[in-house]
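Hey, does this match?
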Amino acid sequence: MAVFSERARQEIPAAREGVPGLSIIGAGMRVVGDISADGVVKIEGSVSGTVRAASRCSVARAGKWKATS
């Protein structure tokens, strides 16, 4: 069973190779460990570990980030 129609698939822009993107840790998601991203990291859930983002890391109001040393 297909989730998207052929038309919807054509409207979704394909990821371009070599172009950093946006990585989202969504609400209700919990990550324990290190994160490394070439673009932006947005934390809406919770992260316990090191976050390395080439561009920027932002934490939403409801997000939690416990950095490890």
User: Anything to note?
Assistant: The two ends are 46 Å apart (CA to CA). The chain has a mean pLDDT of 82. The longest helix spans residues 6-11. Residues 33 and 49 are 5 Å apart (CA to CA).
